[in-house]
Design goal:
With 332 residues, the chain is an alpha/beta fold. It folds into two domains: 196 residues, Medium-chain alcohol dehydrogenases, catalytic domain (Quinone Oxidoreductase, Chain A, domain 1, Alpha-Beta Complex), CATH 3.90.180.10; 130 residues, 3-Layer(aba) Sandwich (Rossmann fold), CATH 3.40.50. It is 25% helix and 26% strand. It is built from ten helices and 17 strands. The strands form four sheets. Strands 3, 4, 5, 8, 9, 16 and 17 form a seven-stranded mixed sheet that branches. A six-stranded parallel sheet has the order 12-11-10-13-14-15, sandwiched between helices. It is globular. It starts with a strand and ends with a strand.
């Protein structure tokens, strides 16, 4: 099978031919149709995640068809599934026992600690696969497996911290933000898009999706925000976001990696403002999210690449050339 593999961090992915993997007892073999390209994949390639077990096949926004199931896997061949970031948990640590499997001490993650979807075939634990709509375009579904899911979890956390969470700032208007923006509008809220300074294309894209306001990340809109969700991996945005939220509001950091947060005056935090991170996702998040997106239209704006163009997709993401999400088309 064709695959793109990371042999060493801070190096380009390499195209290789590998044997088709065999599923274990609780695994399914999936013929990959499409795989999203996520900023976390960049953090992997750049060596910004700890203990990367190279060689590894990246990719954790995987959509494909089950072609074979292990003896103890209760999913049927022919089903279309999504394979998300969370690929396995122990079920026995203090976090798993507290219904917080996203914080599992021994968790394994797709495309990082487990081979992912930059390939024609992959295996996954059936318990962590999410059934997805068989009638939908797989390339449009792929970004929902991480960009959509992490945005949904960020919104859940923000709702739990803020009363009347209606005015929401989105810092970094890429794959996750453009999906979450549509959910915010659908439920009757307002979103405010903060982009790289001078990125008029991204700001106009936000307005086309219904933004109340769009501007540079160092600007403060006239209306105080109920919460701000930061998708850009830039720690300096945290103090800026705090200045934009009202008393009792929250700043949610939605990335797995972020540069250091600079110091800021206590006055920016005072007034019972909150700062929270969001780590990974749970299987329950996945089931809830895909149930909701069946009820209202979420359109993912995708830029398609062939599997062998994965390095170009990563570089386009790195340099902010994408309005929406990058997706590798694996199966013709």
């Amino acid at each position: 099978m064709r695959a793109m593999i990371l042999n060493a961090v801070r190096s380009p992915l390499v195209p290789v031919e590998l044997p088709v993997p065999k599923p274990g007892n609780t695994e399914v073999l999936v013929r990959v149709e499409a795989c999203g390209v996520c900023r976390t994949d960049l953090h992997l390639v750049d060596g910004e995640l700890p203990d990367i077990p190279v060689p590894i096949i990246p990719g954790h926004e995987v959509v494909g068809e089950i072609v074979k199931a292990g003896a103890d896997a209760s999913l049927e061949p022919g089903m279309r599934v999504g394979i998300p970031w969370l690929g396995w948990t122990c079920g026995d640590c203090v976090y798993c026992r507290a219904d917080a499997e996203n914080l599992c001490e021994h968790a394994r993650f797709t495309g990082y600690l487990l081979d992912g979807g930059y390939c024609e075939y992959t295996v996954a634990d059936y318990r962590y696969c999410i059934p997805v709509h068989s009638e939908s375009n797989p390339e449009e579904l792929a970004p929902l497996l991480c960009a959509g899911l992490i945005g949904y979890r960020c919104l859940k956390i923000a709702d739990s911290l803020c009363r009347n969470n209606e005015k929401i700032g989105l810092f970094g208007f890429g794959a996750a933000a453009h999906i979450l923006a549509q959910i915010i509008v659908y439920r009757g809220g307002q979103f405010f898009a903060f982009t790289r300074p001078g990125d008029q294309d991204a700001q106009q894209f936000a307005y086309r999706l219904g933004a109340t306001w769009a501007g540079d990340s160092d600007q403060i809109p006239a209306a105080a925000l109920d919460c701000a969700i930061i998708f850009a991996p830039a720690g300096h945005l945290v103090p800026l976001a705090l200045k934009s939220v009202r008393k009792g509001g929250a700043v949610i950091c939605g990335g797995i990696h972020m540069s250091d947060i600079p110091s800021f005056p206590y006055a920016s935090l005072w007034g019972e403002r909150h700062i929270s991170s969001v780590a990974n996702l749970t299987r329950q998040d996945g089931m809830e999210f895909f149930s909701k997106v069946r009820k209202f239209p979420v359109q993912t704006h995708v830029h398609l690449y062939q599997l062998e163009e994965a390095n170009r997709a990563l570089e386009d993401l790195r340099h902010g050339k994408l309005k929406g999400a990058a997706v590798l088309r694996v199966r013709d």
